[in-house]
Amino acid sequence: MKEMGGRHILALCVLKESYKFFADLLDCIKALNRNSDRSIPMTVDFIRLKSYCNDQSTGDMKVIGGDDLSTFTGKNVLTVEDIIDTGKTTQTLLSLAKQRNPKMVKVASVLVKRTPQSVGYRPDFVGFEIPDKFVVGYALDYNKYFRDLNRVCVISETGKATYKA
Question: Which pLDDT does position 57 carry in this prediction?
C-alpha cells in the first residue's frame, strides 16, 4: 500500500489465470483499508492476454479483451499477474500501459518461474519463486483444464498428453 503511493489504486487483473490471486489480494487490501486510519480508494479493471499454446509460449502476446487503457492516465496502476515465466508478456503489457502515461505501474505476481528463457524481468511484488516446471491450479490452466484446483501443482507428462489441444 505504501509503495503504491498511498493514493487511489487502479487494480488491473490479467485474465484468466490471475483471477483467484486477484480476488485474494483485493480481499487483503480491503482488510488493510478497514483496519487503517486512512482508507485508500481502489477501482478494478480487467484485461485478457494470450501467449501460450499447450505448455509453450508462442512468443506473441495478444490482447483479447479489456477496456481502453486510456483509463491508466495519471493513475497508480497495480497490475496483478499469475506467473512471470519469460517476462516477455509482462514487459509488452507494461510498454502498452506506459504509453497511456500512468502516474506509476507496479506488478504483483503470485509466481515467478526460474527459467533460462527469462529476459530478467522481476515484478515489484512476488509471492513465490518456482522451478522451471509447468504448473496448474489456483486458476492456472493447461488448455482450460485444472483452473478449479485449490493448490498449485506440476502437471505430469501423462497429464499433458491426455489434455493436449
Answer: 57
Name, in order, each residue with C-beta under 8 angstroms of 46's C-beta and a sequence gap of 6 or more: 12, 13, 15, 65, 66, 67
Those residues of the chain that have pLDDT short of 50 are none
Domains of the chain: 9-130 (3.40.50.2020)
Mapped to the 3 state alphabet, what secondary structure does 20-36 carry?
HHHHHHHHHHHHHHHCC
Q: Cα(36)–Cα(129) distance, rounded to whole angstroms? A: 30
DSSP string, the chain: -TTTTTS-EEEEEEETTTHHHHHHHHHHHHHHHHTSSSPPPEEEEEEEEEEEETTEEEEEEEEEEE--GGGGTT-EEEEEEEEESSSHHHHHHHHHHHTT--SEEEEEEEEEE--TT--S---SEEEEEE-S--EEBTTB-BTTBSTT-SS-EEPPHHHHHHT--
Which residues face 112 on adjacent strands? 84, 129
Per-residue pLDDT at 16:
87
| Catalytic annotation, pick one of 27, 85, 141, 148 | 85
Q: Establish whether 60 is a catalytic residue.
A: no
Q: Closest by alpha carbon to 86, among 64, 67, 107, 58?
A: 58
